[in-house]
Amino acid sequence: MLSFHTDKGGSVGLSRRAMLRVGGLGALGFGAGATAQRAAASGAADAKRGRARSIVFVTLYGGPPQTETFDMKPQAPLEARGPFKPISTNNPGVQICEHLPRLATLADRYTLARSFSHSDTAHAASLYTHLTGWPHRLNNQNSPASPHDNPHYGALVSRLKPPAGRVPACAIVGGRILPQFAGIGQTGGFLGKMHAPWMLSDASRQQLLSKSDLTRVRIDARRSLVEALQSKRRGLDREREVENFSTAQSRALQLLGARGFIEAFDLGREPAKVRDAYGRFPLGQNMLLARRLVEVGVPVIQVSDIPPGGEQHWDLHYANIFERLKNPLLPRLDQSVAALLRDLDQRGLLEETLVIVGGEFGRTPWIDHLTDPPQGGRQHWPHCYSMLLAGGGIRRGEVFGKSDELSAYPASHKVGPWDLGATLLHLGGIDPATTVEDREGHRRLICRGSVIRELL
């Protein structure tokens, strides 16, 4: 619980315990106490290495505004704070947006990180950084995916710690983000197509379900055909199309033979009340599918819900963003994420499932085209933004880092998306200092960040 003290001059400040809770004391470096804290954090991090069997990326493409979600500034000027009010959570002293009431009741199960920062303002390049942990080589530009890109986190898992069963190492639920840029950040990159995330669209889900009754004889026959094709590859290794065809067919057969994998896509097996709890809208049902994929052992799941067909698009510029946030963005995010956290926890899966909720950047701390009542939009802002982190070894009921009075820049514990990458790799049982060989035989470092040990 937050408490306050007054000094001799009458000014009010946070107690030492409260400052520790919100991350203030660590930034000030109080001698031996801070050293002891760092040592304890290091020990906790080592103990939690490999805790996360699955990682769920709830990818809020477009950049959700930190000031209307997890880092509200009710004392800021009108042109900065907007019309929404903060509400208290079940974590004393911590507040979030009034349009996230379900998540407010679960604040003791997650940590809010309020000091993420980088410098890239382009959607494609920033999404690449969010999903690979590396700055894009062309800063502040929307460039297409390249075979020389760094791989998606799921591709690293495919290469370094593939699942024991036939399930894919990574599935993208709800559609690949930014297909016009060839799915930047969501490919195998320099590891190749064999390790690329498996993209699950509604069409592919229906196709898999239609084949769920294939007999073992038919599956084995198809596997024999693919093996025969692969035996011819030595003389055709320069024919890229044949190689890609064979790879795609092999991966398809692998999925057909995975125990319980195809059945996971049949949401009709879920009780109606469970489907209702997640929400009968695309994001909610995608989140439910993510939980089912966790249960069958898929290590990395990227969840999105983007146009066409989707609704959770957070690129809010000059329209009246507050109406859009009020309905449907915040309520649907609130319902689906709360349902996922509660469901995972009740099933005993949250402690081994890392859930990451956030976008590629935040929004400007000021409102453009301000009116009274406030209308207008917020622009791209990578310099300070927030994320919700839960499970998989993440501390519960904490706030990490602190932003300034406008949520414009980190005031303490500034971290980058590459540090989140190091943290999730560590929790997934992969050493962030690992190097891998690319297709040209060069050794490549998989991560440039440092584990955020205070989160663990």
List the helices and strands and how they pair.
Elements: E1 4-6, E2 12-14, H1 16-22, H2 24-28, H3 31-47, E3 54-59, H4 78-81, E4 86-88, E5 95-97, H5 101-104, E6 110-116, H6 123-132, H7 153-160, E7 170-173, E8 198-200, H8 202-210, H9 216-231, H10 240-256, H11 272-278, H12 282-295, E9 300-303, H13 321-346, E10 353-358, E11 362-363, E12 380-381, E13 385-390, E14 398-400, E15 402-403, E16 410-412, H14 417-427, E17 435-437, E18 443-445
Parallel strand pairs: 3-9, 3-10, 6-14, 7-8, 7-9
Antiparallel strand pairs: 1-2, 4-5, 6-13, 10-13, 11-12, 15-16, 17-18
Structural class determined from secondary elements: alpha/beta
Q: What is the share of helical residues?
A: 25-40%
Question: What's the number of helices?
Answer: 14
What is the CATH first-level class name of the largest domain? Alpha Beta
Widest β-sheet, arrangement of strands: 8-7-9-3-10-13-6-14
Strand percentage, roughly?
5-15%
Give a nutshell description of this structure:
With 456 residues, the protein is of the alpha/beta class. Helix content is 34%, strand content 14%.
What descriptive keywords fit this protein?
single chain; 456 residues; alpha/beta; Alkaline Phosphatase, subunit A; 2 domains; 8-stranded mixed β-sheet; two-stranded antiparallel sheet; 14 helices; 18 strands; globular; disordered N terminus
Describe the structure.
It is a single chain. With 456 residues, this protein is α/β, with parallel strands linked by helices. It folds into two domains: 349 residues, Alkaline Phosphatase, subunit A, CATH 3.40.720; 48 residues. 34% of the residues lie in helices and 14% in strands. The chain is built from 14 helices and 18 strands. The strands form six sheets. An eight-stranded mixed β-sheet has the order 8-7-9-3-10-13-6-14, sandwiched between helices. It has a two-stranded antiparallel ribbon with strand order 1-2. Strands 4-5 form a two-stranded antiparallel ribbon. A hairpin with a 5-residue loop joins strand 1 and strand 2. Helix 9 runs antiparallel to helix 10 and helix 12 packs parallel to helix 13. The radius of gyration is 23 Å and the shape is globular.
